[in-house]
Amino acid sequence: MSISPELAAAIAFLQQKSCVTTPVQESEAERETLRQKLRLACQAANWENIGICADNVAVATATVQQYLRGLGYDSAIAIDPGEWGDRPVYLKFNTQKMSHYLDDYVGQYRGVLVALQSPEPELAGTYGHFPLDLFAG
């Protein structure tokens, strides 16, 4: 089974935005296009793993909740920030199991990776680094 031309174009767009070493500040119109393409790709996938590198657990939790809402999920997660303090964290959220993993993070990167899970090789893959605030507001 092959993917539609519209989905192929969305994947190509996401690939262009992926692994960029120096993130570009985009206009709101460009951010909306990114949101639309990411939604389309996620709707076609079986599920996603959303990986977030953030300054602290509060930012990571807010970001994953914004991404989940933005991608059409109704799930909310509750993480006690007290045990994590104000240090960088990595949060991985699996939309198939609606569960998360949280760990310390020592890297400099801050942002979001979305790994699409699909039997379609044209669709499956990891895309990003996307802005923490892509779905804010």
Mean pLDDT: 93
Q: Please indicate the percent range of residues in DSSP E strands (runs of 2 or more).
A: 15-25%
Broad structural category = alpha+beta
State the major sheet.
5 strands, antiparallel
CATH class: Alpha Beta
Which stretches of 5+ consecutive residues score pLDDT under 50? none
Dominant shape:
globular
Cα-to-Cα separation, first versus last residue: 37 Å
H/E element sequence? HHEHEEEE
* Total tally of structural domains: 1
Oligomerization status of the protein chains: single chain
CATH topology: Dihydrodipicolinate Reductase, domain 2
Helix content: 25-40%
Number of helices: 3
Number of DSSP-assigned strands: 5
CATH architecture: 2-Layer Sandwich
The CATH homologous superfamily is named Dihydrodipicolinate Reductase, domain 2
Rg, alpha carbons: 15 Å
Widest β-sheet, arrangement of strands? 3-2-1-4-5
Question: What is the strand and helix layout of this fold?
Answer:
Blueprint: H1 5-16, H2 28-44, E1 47-54, H3 57-70, E2 89-94, E3 99-104, E4 111-117, E5 125-130
Antiparallel strand pairs: 1-2, 1-4, 2-3, 4-5
Helix pairs in contact: 1-2
Describe what this molecule looks like in 3D.
It is built from 3 helices and 5 strands. The mean pLDDT is 93. A hairpin with a 4-residue loop joins strand 2 and strand 3. The chain has one domain (5-130): Dihydrodipicolinate Reductase, domain 2 (2-Layer Sandwich), CATH 3.30.360.10. It has helices at residues 5-16, 28-44, 57-70; strands at residues 47-54, 89-94, 99-104, 111-117, 125-130.
